[in-house]
Amino acid sequence: MARKPDPAAIYERKGGKLEPVSLSAHAVGVTSPRLALTPRRRGVANYYGACAERVTGGAGVGGGLQEAVDGGKGGDGGSLALVDMRRAVTVAQTALRVMPLLTYIPRSSYPTGPHEPIRMQLLVDAVCVYGHELDSVARTFGWFIMREEDRSGVTVAAKVIPKQQRQKVKAALDEALDAVIDAWTSEGVRVPAWVGSVEVG
Question: How many CB atoms are closer than 10 A to CB 186?
Fold first, then answer.
């Protein structure tokens, strides 16, 4: 199910100018401008995704993320940064696990998919760690209708994600990211300053 996310440079705004946070902090596909997120939510998504990838042994975030976390200092800086990352992931996942399942009862004259419930942690991991698009997540859980479409003169049955289902999944992602930052704040999790104001390029 995992795919290699599209790279995107991460920036923070300082004094009206955009400055790169890290040259290697492009490990998560949620940085794609196609996904409309506030700077705060985008920062949470990127930091959670990078931390989750790092603590599970993934490659790609490496020293650049360490620089963003602890200034790139030598010595025990890397170990301390990894402790912060593990705590960020643990606190986030604990908050996501207690959120209610995302459900939707379709009302359509077309045949529909099963619309299986979606766990919030799975939604956040799919988007922020593995770089999936929201439509891909919706389709995986059967949040679609079957409709005939004309493709190059050929009528085919297509799994279409209706606007209502797409909006429901997007609103759930927003709510989940807000829950993560709230949990980090209440539990005193240290996060880099750029998490509150990420822009992508």
Answer: 10
Supply the pTM of this predicted model: 0.76
In this structure, how many other beta carbons lie within 10 angstroms of the beta carbon of residue 85?
Answer: 25
Residue boundaries of the structural domains of the chain: 10-99+176-200, 120-173
Average pLDDT score over the chain: 78
Residue length of the chain: 201
Is the CB of residue 145 less than 8 Å from the CB of residue 112?
A: yes
Q: Is the pLDDT of residue 187 over 90?
A: yes
Contact 85, 49 (CB under 8 A): no
Written as one letter, the residue type at 79 is S
Residue type, 100: P
Report the alpha-carbon distance of residue 146 to residue 120 in Å, rounded: 25
Q: In whole angstroms, how far apart are CA 29 and each of 10, 108, 168, 193, 200?
A: 11, 32, 20, 21, 11
Distances in Å between the Cα of 171 and the Cα atoms of 31, 112, 134, 162, 167 are 17, 21, 11, 14, 6
CA–CA distance, 63 with 44 (Å, rounded to integer): 19
Q: CA-CA distance, 182 to 179, in Å (whole number)?
A: 5
- Amino acid identity for residue 39 in this structure: P
Banded pLDDT at 19 (limits 50, 70, 90): low
If DSSP codes are grouped into helix, strand and coil, which group holds residue 141? coil
Distance between alpha carbon 169 and the CA centroid of its chain, in Å? 12
The pairing of beta strand 145-151 with beta strand 17-22 = unpaired
